[in-house]
Amino acid sequence: GGPHTINTMVDVATAPSLLPTLDNARTRELDKKHVLHSWSAQNAINPPPVTEASGVRMTVDGTSYIDFTSQLVNVNIGYQHPKLVAAIQEQAGRLMTVSPAMANDMRSEAARVIAEVAPDGMNMVFFTNGGAEANENAIRMARLHTGRHKVLAAYRSYHGATHGAITLTGEPRRFGSEPGIPGVVHFFGPYLYRSPFHATTEAEEGDRALQHLREVMVAEGTDKIAAIILETIVGTNGILMPPDGYLRGVRELCDEFGILLIADEVMAGFARTGEWFAINHWDVVPDLISFAKGVNSGYVPLGGVILSDAVAGSFMDTAYPGGLTYSGHPLACASAVASVSIMKEEGIVEHARDLGERVIGPKLRELAQAHRSVGEVRGIGVFWALELVTDPDARTPLTADQMNQVAAACKGAGMWPFIAGNRVHIVPPCVITEEEFAEGVRALEDGLAVADGFVA
Ligand code: PLP
Protein backbone atom coordinates (compact mmCIF):
# COMPACT_ATOMS: atom_id res chain seq x y z
CA GLY A 1 0.00 0.00 0.00
CA GLY A 2 0.93 3.64 -0.40
CA PRO A 3 1.47 6.13 2.38
CA HIS A 4 -2.27 6.51 2.93
CA THR A 5 -2.97 2.84 3.47
CA ILE A 6 -3.36 2.17 7.14
CA ASN A 7 -3.34 -1.51 7.85
CA THR A 8 -5.10 -2.06 11.14
CA MET A 9 -4.84 -5.82 10.87
CA VAL A 10 -1.10 -6.30 11.19
CA ASP A 11 -0.29 -9.77 12.42
CA VAL A 12 2.35 -8.99 15.01
CA ALA A 13 3.79 -12.49 14.96
CA THR A 14 4.54 -12.48 11.25
CA ALA A 15 5.23 -8.77 10.69
CA PRO A 16 8.65 -8.28 9.12
CA SER A 17 11.28 -6.84 11.46
CA LEU A 18 12.12 -3.20 10.84
CA LEU A 19 15.04 -3.27 13.24
CA PRO A 20 18.50 -3.46 11.70
CA THR A 21 21.28 -5.46 13.32
CA LEU A 22 24.24 -3.28 14.27
CA ASP A 23 27.58 -4.65 15.36
CA ASN A 24 29.28 -2.98 18.31
CA ALA A 25 31.65 -0.98 16.12
CA ARG A 26 28.71 0.52 14.21
CA THR A 27 26.83 1.21 17.45
CA ARG A 28 29.86 3.08 18.78
CA GLU A 29 30.36 5.00 15.56
CA LEU A 30 26.75 6.23 15.41
CA ASP A 31 26.77 6.95 19.14
CA LYS A 32 29.80 9.21 18.76
CA LYS A 33 28.33 10.96 15.78
CA HIS A 34 24.70 11.44 16.78
CA VAL A 35 24.02 10.83 20.49
CA LEU A 36 24.57 13.65 22.95
CA HIS A 37 25.26 12.13 26.36
CA SER A 38 24.66 13.68 29.76
CA TRP A 39 27.13 14.95 32.36
CA SER A 40 30.33 14.19 30.39
CA ALA A 41 32.19 15.96 27.61
CA GLN A 42 31.49 14.05 24.41
CA ASN A 43 35.20 13.75 23.64
CA ALA A 44 35.97 12.39 27.10
CA ILE A 45 33.71 9.37 26.84
CA ASN A 46 33.40 6.24 24.78
CA PRO A 47 30.31 4.45 26.13
CA PRO A 48 30.54 0.66 25.74
CA PRO A 49 27.59 -1.06 24.04
CA VAL A 50 25.33 -3.34 26.04
CA THR A 51 23.84 -5.93 23.74
CA GLU A 52 22.12 -8.32 26.10
CA ALA A 53 21.38 -8.86 29.74
CA SER A 54 19.59 -11.41 31.87
CA GLY A 55 18.99 -11.56 35.61
CA VAL A 56 22.00 -9.87 37.22
CA ARG A 57 24.35 -10.29 34.26
CA MET A 58 24.92 -7.99 31.32
CA THR A 59 27.09 -8.25 28.26
CA VAL A 60 29.17 -5.13 27.77
CA ASP A 61 31.21 -4.89 24.60
CA GLY A 62 31.07 -8.66 24.21
CA THR A 63 32.03 -9.57 27.78
CA SER A 64 29.63 -10.79 30.47
CA TYR A 65 29.67 -9.08 33.86
CA ILE A 66 27.84 -9.37 37.16
CA ASP A 67 26.09 -6.02 37.32
CA PHE A 68 26.61 -4.25 40.66
CA THR A 69 24.98 -1.06 39.32
CA SER A 70 21.45 -2.00 38.18
CA GLN A 71 22.21 0.62 35.49
CA LEU A 72 21.30 3.82 37.35
CA VAL A 73 20.05 1.83 40.34
CA ASN A 74 16.79 1.04 38.60
CA VAL A 75 16.81 -2.59 37.44
CA ASN A 76 15.52 -3.84 40.79
CA ILE A 77 13.81 -6.89 39.31
CA GLY A 78 16.81 -7.92 37.17
CA TYR A 79 17.16 -7.89 33.40
CA GLN A 80 14.63 -9.43 31.00
CA HIS A 81 12.40 -10.87 33.68
CA PRO A 82 10.30 -13.21 31.50
CA LYS A 83 6.97 -12.36 33.14
CA LEU A 84 7.60 -8.64 32.91
CA VAL A 85 8.66 -8.85 29.27
CA ALA A 86 5.57 -10.96 28.53
CA ALA A 87 3.25 -8.44 30.22
CA ILE A 88 4.73 -5.62 28.16
CA GLN A 89 4.35 -7.62 24.96
CA GLU A 90 0.77 -8.46 25.90
CA GLN A 91 -0.09 -4.81 26.54
CA ALA A 92 1.63 -3.78 23.28
CA GLY A 93 -0.78 -6.08 21.47
CA ARG A 94 -3.80 -4.66 23.30
CA LEU A 95 -3.33 -0.89 23.27
CA MET A 96 -0.18 1.12 22.72
CA THR A 97 -1.25 4.66 23.56
CA VAL A 98 -4.06 6.65 25.10
CA SER A 99 -4.04 10.20 26.41
CA PRO A 100 -4.33 11.11 30.09
CA ALA A 101 -7.67 12.78 29.29
CA MET A 102 -9.18 9.31 28.90
CA ALA A 103 -9.38 6.59 31.54
CA ASN A 104 -7.42 3.41 30.91
CA ASP A 105 -7.59 0.01 32.60
CA MET A 106 -3.86 -0.40 33.23
CA ARG A 107 -3.51 3.17 34.55
CA SER A 108 -6.36 2.57 36.98
CA GLU A 109 -4.86 -0.71 38.10
CA ALA A 110 -1.32 0.69 38.41
CA ALA A 111 -2.59 3.52 40.60
CA ARG A 112 -4.47 1.03 42.76
CA VAL A 113 -1.51 -1.29 43.33
CA ILE A 114 0.86 1.60 44.02
CA ALA A 115 -1.56 3.15 46.54
CA GLU A 116 -1.88 -0.27 48.12
CA VAL A 117 1.84 -0.52 48.92
CA ALA A 118 2.08 3.18 49.92
CA PRO A 119 1.60 4.30 53.53
CA ASP A 120 -1.99 4.52 54.79
CA GLY A 121 -3.78 7.69 53.78
CA MET A 122 -1.94 8.01 50.45
CA ASN A 123 -4.38 6.90 47.79
CA MET A 124 -3.96 9.00 44.69
CA VAL A 125 -1.22 8.87 42.05
CA PHE A 126 -0.13 11.40 39.43
CA PHE A 127 1.92 9.65 36.74
CA THR A 128 4.99 11.06 35.00
CA ASN A 129 7.68 9.67 32.73
CA GLY A 130 10.44 9.61 35.33
CA GLY A 131 11.83 10.90 38.59
CA ALA A 132 12.65 14.50 37.69
CA GLU A 133 9.14 15.13 36.43
CA ALA A 134 7.78 13.51 39.57
CA ASN A 135 9.69 16.00 41.71
CA GLU A 136 8.65 18.93 39.49
CA ASN A 137 5.03 18.02 40.07
CA ALA A 138 5.47 17.25 43.76
CA ILE A 139 6.77 20.76 44.50
CA ARG A 140 4.05 22.31 42.34
CA MET A 141 1.41 20.39 44.31
CA ALA A 142 2.99 21.48 47.59
CA ARG A 143 3.02 25.12 46.50
CA LEU A 144 -0.61 25.01 45.40
CA HIS A 145 -1.76 23.14 48.49
CA THR A 146 -0.03 25.45 50.97
CA GLY A 147 -0.22 28.71 49.04
CA ARG A 148 3.49 29.19 49.90
CA HIS A 149 6.43 29.22 47.53
CA LYS A 150 9.73 28.24 49.16
CA VAL A 151 11.07 24.69 49.05
CA LEU A 152 13.93 23.38 51.18
CA ALA A 153 16.26 20.70 49.80
CA ALA A 154 19.51 19.13 50.97
CA TYR A 155 22.94 20.06 49.66
CA ARG A 156 23.85 16.40 49.38
CA SER A 157 21.03 15.42 47.08
CA TYR A 158 20.11 14.57 43.52
CA HIS A 159 16.51 15.14 42.44
CA GLY A 160 16.74 15.04 38.65
CA ALA A 161 17.81 17.20 35.73
CA THR A 162 14.77 19.17 34.57
CA HIS A 163 14.98 22.82 35.54
CA GLY A 164 13.12 22.66 38.83
CA ALA A 165 14.54 19.29 39.84
CA ILE A 166 18.13 20.34 39.14
CA THR A 167 17.54 23.46 41.25
CA LEU A 168 16.36 21.22 44.10
CA THR A 169 19.47 19.11 43.59
CA GLY A 170 22.12 20.33 46.03
CA GLU A 171 25.25 18.69 44.66
CA PRO A 172 27.49 20.48 42.13
CA ARG A 173 25.62 19.15 39.10
CA ARG A 174 23.18 22.01 39.71
CA PHE A 175 25.83 24.63 38.88
CA GLY A 176 25.51 24.18 35.13
CA SER A 177 21.82 25.13 35.30
CA GLU A 178 22.06 28.10 37.66
CA PRO A 179 20.29 30.36 38.19
CA GLY A 180 17.52 27.87 38.72
CA ILE A 181 13.90 28.31 39.73
CA PRO A 182 13.16 30.86 42.47
CA GLY A 183 12.39 29.87 46.04
CA VAL A 184 14.69 26.88 46.56
CA VAL A 185 16.83 26.99 49.72
CA HIS A 186 19.42 24.36 50.60
CA PHE A 187 20.32 22.95 54.01
CA PHE A 188 22.77 20.34 55.36
CA GLY A 189 21.46 16.90 56.13
CA PRO A 190 23.15 14.44 58.49
CA TYR A 191 26.37 12.71 57.32
CA LEU A 192 28.40 11.66 60.33
CA TYR A 193 31.48 10.44 58.44
CA ARG A 194 32.01 13.97 57.08
CA SER A 195 29.90 15.78 59.62
CA PRO A 196 28.94 19.34 58.71
CA PHE A 197 28.07 19.73 62.39
CA HIS A 198 31.31 18.33 63.90
CA ALA A 199 29.31 15.65 65.65
CA THR A 200 30.88 12.44 66.92
CA THR A 201 27.89 10.12 67.24
CA GLU A 202 24.91 9.36 65.02
CA ALA A 203 22.54 10.65 67.71
CA GLU A 204 24.43 13.92 67.98
CA GLU A 205 24.56 14.25 64.19
CA GLY A 206 20.80 13.72 63.93
CA ASP A 207 20.04 16.22 66.71
CA ARG A 208 22.32 18.90 65.30
CA ALA A 209 20.96 18.40 61.79
CA LEU A 210 17.44 18.95 63.12
CA GLN A 211 18.53 22.04 65.04
CA HIS A 212 20.15 23.39 61.86
CA LEU A 213 17.03 22.64 59.82
CA ARG A 214 14.86 24.47 62.34
CA GLU A 215 17.16 27.50 62.14
CA VAL A 216 17.00 27.49 58.33
CA MET A 217 13.20 27.25 58.47
CA VAL A 218 12.92 30.13 60.91
CA ALA A 219 15.43 32.26 58.99
CA GLU A 220 13.52 31.71 55.73
CA GLY A 221 10.17 32.46 57.33
CA THR A 222 8.29 29.33 58.34
CA ASP A 223 5.08 30.66 56.77
CA LYS A 224 6.84 31.08 53.42
CA ILE A 225 7.88 27.43 53.13
CA ALA A 226 5.67 25.07 51.16
CA ALA A 227 7.73 21.92 51.50
CA ILE A 228 10.94 20.20 52.38
CA ILE A 229 12.01 17.58 49.87
CA LEU A 230 14.52 14.93 50.82
CA GLU A 231 15.76 11.58 49.65
CA THR A 232 14.71 9.27 52.47
CA ILE A 233 18.13 7.67 52.13
CA VAL A 234 20.42 9.91 50.09
CA GLY A 235 21.31 7.84 47.01
CA THR A 236 23.73 9.08 44.39
CA ASN A 237 25.44 11.35 46.90
CA GLY A 238 26.58 8.56 49.16
CA ILE A 239 23.86 6.19 50.41
CA LEU A 240 23.56 8.23 53.59
CA MET A 241 21.46 6.51 56.22
CA PRO A 242 19.50 9.03 58.29
CA PRO A 243 20.24 8.66 62.02
CA ASP A 244 17.31 7.14 63.92
CA GLY A 245 14.97 9.92 64.90
CA TYR A 246 16.02 12.30 62.13
CA LEU A 247 13.11 11.70 59.77
CA ARG A 248 10.64 11.72 62.64
CA GLY A 249 12.15 15.03 63.75
CA VAL A 250 11.77 16.44 60.24
CA ARG A 251 8.13 15.31 60.22
CA GLU A 252 7.58 17.07 63.56
CA LEU A 253 9.17 20.30 62.30
CA CYS A 254 6.94 20.15 59.23
CA ASP A 255 3.86 19.63 61.39
CA GLU A 256 4.84 22.48 63.70
CA PHE A 257 5.09 24.95 60.82
CA GLY A 258 2.50 23.63 58.35
CA ILE A 259 5.19 22.57 55.87
CA LEU A 260 4.71 19.53 53.62
CA LEU A 261 7.18 16.66 53.63
CA ILE A 262 8.08 15.27 50.20
CA ALA A 263 9.92 11.94 50.29
CA ASP A 264 11.93 11.43 47.11
CA GLU A 265 11.85 7.64 46.84
CA VAL A 266 12.90 7.56 43.20
CA MET A 267 16.02 5.51 43.97
CA ALA A 268 15.12 4.01 47.35
CA GLY A 269 11.58 2.85 46.60
CA PHE A 270 10.21 -0.49 45.39
CA ALA A 271 12.30 -3.09 47.20
CA ARG A 272 15.73 -1.45 47.01
CA THR A 273 16.01 -1.06 50.80
CA GLY A 274 13.93 -4.09 51.75
CA GLU A 275 10.69 -2.11 52.03
CA TRP A 276 8.25 -0.85 49.44
CA PHE A 277 9.35 2.63 50.45
CA ALA A 278 12.46 3.40 52.48
CA ILE A 279 10.54 5.76 54.74
CA ASN A 280 8.63 2.74 56.12
CA HIS A 281 11.81 1.78 57.99
CA TRP A 282 11.24 4.79 60.24
CA ASP A 283 7.44 4.70 60.43
CA VAL A 284 7.14 8.22 59.11
CA VAL A 285 4.34 9.19 56.72
CA PRO A 286 5.16 11.97 54.24
CA ASP A 287 2.63 14.15 52.43
CA LEU A 288 3.95 13.33 48.97
CA ILE A 289 6.14 10.53 47.65
CA SER A 290 7.93 10.76 44.32
CA PHE A 291 8.84 7.46 42.67
CA ALA A 292 10.25 6.13 39.37
CA LYS A 293 13.07 3.61 38.69
CA GLY A 294 12.13 0.49 40.70
CA VAL A 295 8.38 0.85 40.08
CA ASN A 296 8.92 -1.12 36.86
CA SER A 297 12.70 -1.45 36.85
CA GLY A 298 12.91 1.03 33.98
CA TYR A 299 11.57 -1.44 31.43
CA VAL A 300 9.38 1.45 30.18
CA PRO A 301 9.85 5.06 31.37
CA LEU A 302 7.56 5.73 34.35
CA GLY A 303 7.49 7.85 37.47
CA GLY A 304 4.93 9.57 39.57
CA VAL A 305 3.80 11.27 42.74
CA ILE A 306 1.69 9.62 45.44
CA LEU A 307 -0.49 12.18 47.23
CA SER A 308 -1.81 12.11 50.76
CA ASP A 309 -5.58 12.36 50.93
CA ALA A 310 -5.24 15.89 52.34
CA VAL A 311 -3.08 17.16 49.47
CA ALA A 312 -5.22 15.35 46.89
CA GLY A 313 -8.19 17.16 48.44
CA SER A 314 -6.85 20.44 47.08
CA PHE A 315 -7.47 19.23 43.54
CA MET A 316 -11.01 17.92 43.88
CA ASP A 317 -12.83 21.19 43.21
CA THR A 318 -9.90 23.10 41.75
CA ALA A 319 -7.94 21.86 38.73
CA TYR A 320 -4.41 20.58 39.15
CA PRO A 321 -2.61 22.84 36.66
CA GLY A 322 -0.15 20.38 35.19
CA GLY A 323 -0.12 17.52 32.73
CA LEU A 324 1.93 15.42 30.35
CA THR A 325 0.93 13.80 27.07
CA TYR A 326 2.27 10.46 28.31
CA SER A 327 1.04 10.66 31.91
CA GLY A 328 -0.13 7.15 32.78
CA HIS A 329 0.97 5.65 29.47
CA PRO A 330 -0.65 2.21 29.08
CA LEU A 331 2.58 0.36 28.30
CA ALA A 332 4.35 1.92 31.29
CA CYS A 333 1.40 1.31 33.58
CA ALA A 334 1.00 -2.30 32.47
CA SER A 335 4.68 -2.85 33.24
CA ALA A 336 4.19 -1.37 36.72
CA VAL A 337 1.19 -3.61 37.40
CA ALA A 338 3.19 -6.67 36.35
CA SER A 339 6.31 -5.57 38.21
CA VAL A 340 4.54 -5.03 41.54
CA SER A 341 2.81 -8.37 41.09
CA ILE A 342 6.13 -10.14 40.45
CA MET A 343 7.73 -8.44 43.45
CA LYS A 344 4.93 -9.78 45.65
CA GLU A 345 4.88 -13.24 44.09
CA GLU A 346 8.64 -13.68 44.35
CA GLY A 347 9.04 -11.94 47.72
CA ILE A 348 11.61 -9.52 46.30
CA VAL A 349 11.07 -6.89 49.02
CA GLU A 350 11.66 -9.52 51.73
CA HIS A 351 14.60 -10.95 49.80
CA ALA A 352 16.27 -7.53 49.62
CA ARG A 353 15.82 -6.99 53.33
CA ASP A 354 17.07 -10.45 54.28
CA LEU A 355 20.06 -10.30 51.95
CA GLY A 356 21.08 -6.91 53.33
CA GLU A 357 20.87 -8.03 56.94
CA ARG A 358 22.27 -11.51 56.65
CA VAL A 359 24.71 -11.36 53.73
CA ILE A 360 25.58 -7.97 52.24
CA GLY A 361 26.00 -5.93 55.43
CA PRO A 362 28.13 -8.54 57.26
CA LYS A 363 30.26 -9.22 54.17
CA LEU A 364 30.96 -5.54 53.47
CA ARG A 365 31.85 -4.93 57.13
CA GLU A 366 34.25 -7.88 56.91
CA LEU A 367 35.83 -6.28 53.84
CA ALA A 368 36.19 -3.01 55.75
CA GLN A 369 38.22 -4.88 58.38
CA ALA A 370 40.41 -6.54 55.77
CA HIS A 371 41.03 -3.50 53.55
CA ARG A 372 42.71 -0.36 54.86
CA SER A 373 41.21 1.76 52.08
CA VAL A 374 37.62 1.23 53.23
CA GLY A 375 36.80 4.20 55.43
CA GLU A 376 33.14 3.48 56.00
CA VAL A 377 30.40 1.00 55.10
CA ARG A 378 26.82 2.26 54.99
CA GLY A 379 23.52 0.90 53.76
CA ILE A 380 20.50 -1.32 54.05
CA GLY A 381 18.80 -3.90 51.84
CA VAL A 382 20.55 -3.95 48.46
CA PHE A 383 21.61 -0.30 48.80
CA TRP A 384 25.17 0.08 50.12
CA ALA A 385 28.27 2.26 49.80
CA LEU A 386 31.94 1.76 50.58
CA GLU A 387 33.80 5.01 51.07
CA LEU A 388 37.41 4.67 49.91
CA VAL A 389 40.15 6.78 51.49
CA THR A 390 43.93 7.03 51.16
CA ASP A 391 44.32 8.08 54.79
CA PRO A 392 41.86 6.47 57.20
CA ASP A 393 42.42 9.16 59.86
CA ALA A 394 42.18 12.23 57.62
CA ARG A 395 39.50 10.43 55.53
CA THR A 396 41.15 11.67 52.35
CA PRO A 397 39.07 10.53 49.37
CA LEU A 398 40.62 8.52 46.56
CA THR A 399 41.03 10.68 43.44
CA ALA A 400 39.02 10.16 40.26
CA ASP A 401 42.05 8.59 38.61
CA GLN A 402 42.55 6.19 41.51
CA MET A 403 38.85 5.27 41.44
CA ASN A 404 39.16 4.51 37.72
CA GLN A 405 41.89 2.02 38.55
CA VAL A 406 39.70 0.43 41.23
CA ALA A 407 36.86 0.16 38.69
CA ALA A 408 39.17 -1.37 36.09
CA ALA A 409 40.25 -4.07 38.53
CA CYS A 410 36.62 -4.94 39.33
CA LYS A 411 35.76 -5.12 35.65
CA GLY A 412 38.84 -7.21 34.95
CA ALA A 413 37.50 -9.75 37.42
CA GLY A 414 34.00 -9.79 35.89
CA MET A 415 31.99 -7.27 37.93
CA TRP A 416 30.68 -3.91 36.69
CA PRO A 417 30.95 -1.48 39.63
CA PHE A 418 28.98 1.69 40.43
CA ILE A 419 31.50 4.44 41.12
CA ALA A 420 30.35 7.77 42.60
CA GLY A 421 33.10 10.14 43.71
CA ASN A 422 35.37 8.17 46.06
CA ARG A 423 32.71 5.58 46.73
CA VAL A 424 31.78 2.21 45.35
CA HIS A 425 28.02 1.80 45.62
CA ILE A 426 26.93 -1.82 45.95
CA VAL A 427 23.58 -1.75 44.15
CA PRO A 428 23.00 -4.92 42.12
CA PRO A 429 19.48 -5.95 41.09
CA CYS A 430 17.47 -6.74 44.23
CA VAL A 431 16.95 -10.32 43.00
CA ILE A 432 20.66 -11.17 43.26
CA THR A 433 21.31 -14.52 44.96
CA GLU A 434 23.89 -15.16 47.67
CA GLU A 435 26.07 -17.04 45.16
CA GLU A 436 25.93 -14.23 42.61
CA PHE A 437 26.68 -11.68 45.29
CA ALA A 438 29.69 -13.74 46.43
CA GLU A 439 30.90 -13.85 42.83
CA GLY A 440 30.66 -10.07 42.54
CA VAL A 441 32.40 -9.60 45.88
CA ARG A 442 35.39 -11.64 44.75
CA ALA A 443 35.85 -9.11 41.94
CA LEU A 444 35.26 -6.23 44.34
CA GLU A 445 38.14 -7.54 46.46
CA ASP A 446 40.45 -7.14 43.47
CA GLY A 447 39.33 -3.52 43.28
CA LEU A 448 39.87 -3.00 46.99
CA ALA A 449 43.37 -4.47 46.75
CA VAL A 450 44.16 -1.76 44.20
CA ALA A 451 42.63 0.86 46.52
CA ASP A 452 44.75 -0.42 49.42
CA GLY A 453 47.82 0.30 47.32
CA PHE A 454 46.96 4.02 47.47
CA VAL A 455 46.85 4.13 51.25
CA ALA A 456 49.88 6.03 52.52
N1 PLP B 1 15.49 11.54 42.51
C1 PLP B 1 16.43 10.66 42.86
C2 PLP B 1 16.64 10.36 44.30
C3 PLP B 1 17.23 10.06 41.88
O1 PLP B 1 18.19 9.20 42.24
C4 PLP B 1 17.00 10.37 40.53
C5 PLP B 1 17.82 9.75 39.45
O2 PLP B 1 18.88 9.22 39.68
C6 PLP B 1 15.99 11.29 40.20
C7 PLP B 1 15.25 11.83 41.21
C8 PLP B 1 15.71 11.67 38.77
O3 PLP B 1 15.04 10.65 38.13
P1 PLP B 1 15.01 10.61 36.53
O4 PLP B 1 16.43 10.45 36.08
O5 PLP B 1 14.13 9.43 36.23
O6 PLP B 1 14.42 11.88 36.05
TrEMBL record:
Provide the alphabetized UniProt keywords: Aminotransferase, Pyridoxal phosphate, Transferase
Organism of derivation: Nostocoides australiense Ben110
Q: Which domain of life is it from?
A: Bacteria
Name used for this protein in its record = Aminotransferase class-III
Q: So which cofactors does this thing need? A: pyridoxal 5'-phosphate
Q: Which GO terms describe its cellular component?
A: cytosol
Family in the record? Belongs to the class-III pyridoxal-phosphate-dependent aminotransferase family.
Q: Which InterPro entries match?
A: Aminotrans_3, Aminotrans_3_PPA_site, PyrdxlP-dep_Trfase, PyrdxlP-dep_Trfase_major, PyrdxlP-dep_Trfase_small
